[in-house]
Amino acid sequence: MIVTVAAKTETEPPALVSHTGQEFNYVLEGRVKVIFGKREFLLNEGDCFYFDPVTPHAQTAVGGKDAKFLTVILL
């Protein structure tokens, strides 16, 4: 599925989610910050992130622009 994350000016952290399976994210446009547990990763276009989604996580757009990423969730 393609996910579009709108750029926000809010400083409040996003809500973290958790679910079973395996998850793969591939950034198509913009820059995405992945919050994974207590760690944060900054992804640029063409970067990917594969992880166990049982760990609480969230994705946000950074740099003042919307971002798009492909997500594949295997249950």
Give a written overview of the molecule.
The chain contains no helices and seven strands. With 75 residues, it is an all-beta fold. The model has no long low-confidence stretch (mean pLDDT 96). The chain has one domain (2-7, 16-74): Sandwich (Jelly Rolls), CATH 2.60.120.10. A hairpin with a 2-residue loop joins β3 and β4 (39-43). It has strands spanning 2-5, 22-29, 31-36, 39-43, 48-51, 57-62, 67-74. The radius of gyration is 12 Å and the shape is globular.
Q: What are the main properties of this structure?
A:
75 residues, mainly beta, Jelly Rolls, four-stranded antiparallel beta sheet, three-stranded antiparallel beta sheet, 0% helix, globular
Write the layout of secondary structure elements.
Layout: E1 2-5, E2 22-29, E3 31-36, E4 39-43, E5 48-51, E6 57-62, E7 67-74
Antiparallel strand pairs: 1-7, 2-5, 2-7, 3-4, 3-6
**What is the strand tally?**
7
Shape: globular
The proportion of strand residues reads over 45%
User: Any idea what the CATH superfamily is called?
Assistant: Jelly Rolls
Summarize the structure.
By secondary structure, the protein is an all-beta fold. About 0% of the residues lie in helices and about 55% in strands.
